[in-house]
Amino acid sequence: MVHESIIPVCHYFVFAEPTANLLHLFRVAFFVTLTLQSIVVVMLNVMNYFINSTWMQRYQSNISENGLTLLWSTIVSIFTLGGLVGVSIGSTLSVKLGRRGTLLTNNCFSVMAALLMGLSAFAGSFELLIIGRLLCGINAGVALCVEPMYLGEIAPTALRGAMGMGTSIFLTVGIVSGQVMGLEEILGREEYWPFLLATTCIPAFLQLLFLPWFPESPRYLFIDRGNDEGCRKGKVFILHGLAGSEGALKDIQAEKNNLVGFKARKPWELLADRSVRWQVITIILLNAAQQLNGVNAMYFYTQYVFQQSGIPTDKIPYATVGTGACECLTALTCGLLVECLGRKVLIAGGYILMSVCCILFTLTLALQHVSPVFPYLSVACVFAFVLSFGLGPGGVTNILTTELFTQTSRPAAFMIAGSVNWLSFFFIGLVFPFIVIGLQHYCFLVFFVVCSTVAIYILAAIPETKNKSFLEIQNEFQSSKKKTDVLPDEAEALLVSTSL
């Protein structure tokens, strides 16, 4: 069975905090991350039937097999193209409209997509489905670019990692929600698929209802817009509380002083700047690895290993929900541990565990028919791999993209990281079927190389960023690499800054 999973960006975020002001910060995160797109799961044969019947009504003939494949492939892949477009415009909009303003505007794409996809069956138009998928991708691309940036900028330093994990936690909540909604007992029946697709508008409406009540990023107001008064009048106090507002203002003021005269940078300017070369290399490598580490391939094999372990075919969707629930649980665990263990331990440990799982999964697949116990071991490897991914790589990647750059470089960094992520997503979707045909279950040896290489790089090259200001992280990166090049003015200013 082949089915499609549209990447979810339906987030929320929950953490316990006794103070009223940090509770307000939680509410900001909750409703900001309550975005942008629901997950839907539509079986291939349902879509094929819709395309066939629509073609027959129009042209009184059956569509060719190649034509059907082309249309289905377009519906699937156009989402990735939309994501790439969304990343490209998201960083620009975040500078012009602000972080909150961009997230509010972005809901228009989700609402329009839900309308078009929901009406596609009634209108007998697969073109509406394609356009809706494109708008869904744009919505997801903008969201994944701007939302982690916003959460990272409004969070207190001590809670920045936990706040940043909100993206990963409720990304996985979206996956589980979509898997549950796609069950036959709910919206998984053939006649309900337009309503399933239209559920993408629900988080968008919730965000449009609640997000206007919450403040814009103080760093954006203070540094990018020079709106000192707007930042001081309540924004920092609301987000950080009375005790933390003074320190937060000093941190923002110090960063602004070191960036006087600098405007938001373009991606090509960031790529050409040798002073942030290792930060750029890091986010490119981590975002590429997030798609190329084999987690999508593992989901591809779930049905096979579940069948081999004796799970009835009609019960496999429920087992698949279990894998999504495991990833969600692990992401939540990572959110609780990220401020305790640090970013480096979690993301490096996650990739090391994934490397081990790749080897074990390859062995258990090769020995499926040797003993009845090996199919069950394969199932255990699937869950262990997904848990390892959720433990670090799934969420910490976005946190590091936020923390490794200062205010004027951050939008461009997210554009670069997002573009690499979406292009890698497209690449693995295009190439993976050929890898499976050529290597079969030994394809996981390729993912072992990816995971182990990234783990070594993290351990060797990335400093710990826990409980450090953005300036301190920047300075430590520069110091750890012992750069001898003549640095641009902005980097020089950062290096002589006073760490808080």
From TrEMBL:
A Pfam family: Sugar_tr
Record keywords, A-Z: Cell membrane, Membrane, Sugar transport, Transmembrane, Transmembrane helix, Transport
GO cellular component: sarcolemma
Membrane-spanning ranges: 28-51, 71-91, 103-122, 128-146, 158-180, 192-214, 345-367, 373-400, 412-436, 442-462
Catalysed reactions listed for this entry: D-fructose(out) = D-fructose(in)
GO MF term list: D-glucose transmembrane transporter activity; fructose transmembrane transporter activity
InterPro entries to which the protein is assigned, alphabetical: GLUT (IPR045263), MFS_dom (IPR020846), MFS_sugar_transport-like (IPR005828), MFS_trans_sf (IPR036259), Sugar/inositol_transpt (IPR003663), Sugar_transporter_CS (IPR005829)
Gene Ontology biological process terms in this record: D-glucose import; dehydroascorbic acid transport; fructose import across plasma membrane
Membrane topology: Multi-pass membrane protein
Domain called Major facilitator superfamily (MFS) profile: residue spans: 21-466
Keyword match Nucleotidyltransferase: no
Keyword Transmembrane: yes
Cellular location(s): Cell membrane, Sarcolemma; Cell membrane
Domain of life: Eukaryota
PANTHER family: MAJOR FACILITATOR SUPERFAMILY (MFS) PROFILE DOMAIN-CONTAINING PROTEIN, SOLUTE CARRIER FAMILY 2
Similarity remark: Belongs to the major facilitator superfamily. Sugar transporter (TC 2.A.1.1) family. Glucose transporter subfamily.
Protein name, as recorded: Solute carrier family 2, facilitated glucose transporter member 5
Organism annotation: Nothobranchius furzeri (Turquoise killifish)
